[in-house]
Amino acid sequence: MLKTAVRSRPNTTAVVERELCCYCGACVAVCPPQAILLLDAHLQIDDEACTSCGRCVRVCPVHALSMAGRPR
Ligand code: SF4
Ligand code: SF4
């Protein structure tokens, strides 16, 4: 059976503004599909795994995350 992700903003994915990110890890903790990986000072978002729920955007204390169009 095909799995269909529930997307609150379809065709968008979370993107990080690296200059603002302070690597607190809050976004990693709230991401349901675990699409965010934080390794030392490198935050990586798997846009294939991202379900566009927006939780990470809401939790980021420095507003470093936003939803943007998916790369084609
Ligand atoms: S929008 Fe949701 S699924 Fe995508 S990276 Fe943020 S918390 Fe994870
Ligand atoms: S919540 Fe914001 S500041 Fe914290 S690691 Fe994620 S993007 Fe960086």
Report on the architecture of this protein.
The chain is α+β, with helices and mostly antiparallel strands and 72 residues long. Helices cover 14% and strands 25% of the residues. The protein is built from 2 helices and 4 strands; from the N terminus they run E-H-E-E-H-E. It has helices spanning 26-30, 55-59; strands spanning 12-16, 36-39, 42-45, 65-69. The chain has a two-stranded antiparallel ribbon with strand order 1-4. A two-stranded antiparallel sheet has the order 2-3. It is globular. Bound molecules: iron/sulfur cluster (2 copies). One iron/sulfur cluster (SF4) binds at residues 14, 30-33, 35-36, 45, 50-56.
* Global outline: globular
Unreliable residue runs: none
> Helix-strand pattern, N to C?
EHEEHE
- Percent in strands: 25-35%
Number of strands: 4
Keywords:
72 residues, alpha+beta, 4 strands, 14% helix, globular, binds iron/sulfur cluster
List the helices and strands and how they pair.
Blueprint (H helix, E strand, L loop, with lengths): L11 E5 L9 H5 L5 E4 L2 E4 L9 H5 L5 E5 L3
The structure holds iron/sulfur cluster (SF4) (2 copies).
One iron/sulfur cluster (SF4) binds next to helix 1.
At a glance:
The chain is α+β, with helices and mostly antiparallel strands and 72 residues long. The chain has helices at residues 26-30, 55-59, and strands at 12-16, 36-39, 42-45, 65-69. It contains two helices and four strands; from the N terminus they run βαββαβ.
